[in-house]
Amino acid sequence: MTTPHAPHILLINPWIHDFAAYDFWAKPLGLMTLGGILRDHGAKVSYLDCLDRFHPSAPESSSPSARCGRGPYRKTTIAKPPGLADIPRTYSRYGIDPDWFVRDLKALPPVDLVLVTSLMTYWYPGVRETIALVKSALHDVPVVLGGVYATLCSKHARQTSGADRLVTGPGENEILSMVSELTGWSPEPHFDPNGLDSFPRPVLDLERRLVHAPVLTSLGCPFRCAYCASHRLQPRMKRRSPASVVEEMVYWHTNHGARDFAFYDDALLVDADRHAIPLLEKIIAAGMDIRLHTPNALHIREITEPLAHLMFRAGFHTIRLGLETTAFDRRGSMDKKVTEAEFLRAVRHLQSAGFRADQVGAYLLAGLPGQRAAGVEESIAVVKRAGVTPVIAHYTPIPHTPMWADAVAASRYDLEADPIFTNNAIFPCQSEAFSWEVLTRLKNLARL
């Protein structure tokens, strides 16, 4: 199919198939950024969200339950994937009903190209279901898959997803040339893939209800933690200017009523004097009544007393610290991000600035290769004694990370055979079978 005129491009955020899922300020920002680039160059862009919590067909769509952009997804019980039948948990499709999705697909004007994103590698069954329904409804329209799963498990995605084409790595580098190849439409580029300030705004206005706006002030991370794939997904560190970031925030706040903003950066506070501090000063000067959230972890050692006070004045409401473990004497093989003294000092600064214990959470990894539950319990106790909230983050084995080999060796599953076995809900790197008793005990201990 060729369309030398500006094409109609459909963006799709696929379903999640999992044992558990919850909307923590989640939006497919990478996909919507590509949509912004395409629309800015003249393409018609539409968006369908299989996770839409506000779909008009849902009885709960008019509920005011959304708090700060968080809330439960609609879910439907489905069969567990092969190999996970022994897990004593319910497996579900999270998101809208498939017949609503097909109806929305068929109501669109003719589509020339479909772009589907992907996130967690073990969520690929939801991606596959989404693409299959697209193909059955739109027939010969090409479907392109990008995102985290497509990048980290590209061979598996080519064999399994049903997509006609894969984009691995940052999509902005090839989006226009790829669309040209697949549709025959060749606009003259007027943005710089390496200059984030040249990017147009993402197409967040296509959301049915903009209960929060994601904000990305930088790409990449200078650290190479053993459990993290950030460097594989974004090999180069790039930053936007503080003025560009605040201009976008003011736009979403003024024109679309967004009050909650979630920073998606992997390294928001790194080199704070030249980035975070001038950014926060400009946010304060803009005088917006907003709440700021950091679902991605902040680097603890960067939090000084002046920065903590700036964060409080700027409107930070939810802070997550990248602590991971309090076994500080044994963490050298994982990362070198923080010492015990730096953690306790950062907590004191945040408390002095006015943050409550329920606003500041420290992520603690559970389910690491060779890790015992007692180690996690001790970390929980240390965090609670410091006066902040322990937040359990279940470890996901990720291909191409330094810890991957240890994860493969420790797992009771064949992690290399199928990404489905890397699901963090099943504690795949523990030699014992999944235990509700251990999971419940950790959850109860982590409560304030």
UniProtKB/TrEMBL annotation:
Q: What is this protein identified as?
A: B12-binding domain-containing radical SAM protein
Which cofactors are required for activity? [4Fe-4S] cluster
Note whether Iron occurs among the keywords. yes
* Superkingdom as given in the UniProt entry: Bacteria
- What are the record keywords, sorted? Iron, Iron-sulfur, Metal-binding, S-adenosyl-L-methionine
Query: GO cellular-component terms in the record?
Result: cytosol
**A Pfam family:** B12-binding
Which GO molecular function entries does the Swiss-Prot or TrEMBL record give?
4 iron, 4 sulfur cluster binding; catalytic activity; cobalamin binding; metal ion binding
Q: Which InterPro entries match?
A: BchE-like, Cobalamin-bd, Cobalamin-bd_sf, Elp3/MiaA/NifB-like_rSAM, Methyltransferase_Class_B, rSAM, rSAM_horseshoe, rSAM_sf
Q: Which residues form the B12-binding domain?
A: 13-189
Residues covered by region (Disordered): 56-75
Residue spans of biased composition, Low complexity class: 56-66
- PANTHER family given in the database record: ANAEROBIC MAGNESIUM-PROTOPORPHYRIN IX MONOMETHYL ESTER CYCLASE-RELATED, PUTATIVE-RELATED
Metal-binding listed as a keyword: yes
Q: Which residues form the Radical SAM core domain?
A: 207-435
Q: Which SUPFAM superfamilies match?
A: Cobalamin (vitamin B12)-binding domain, Radical SAM enzymes
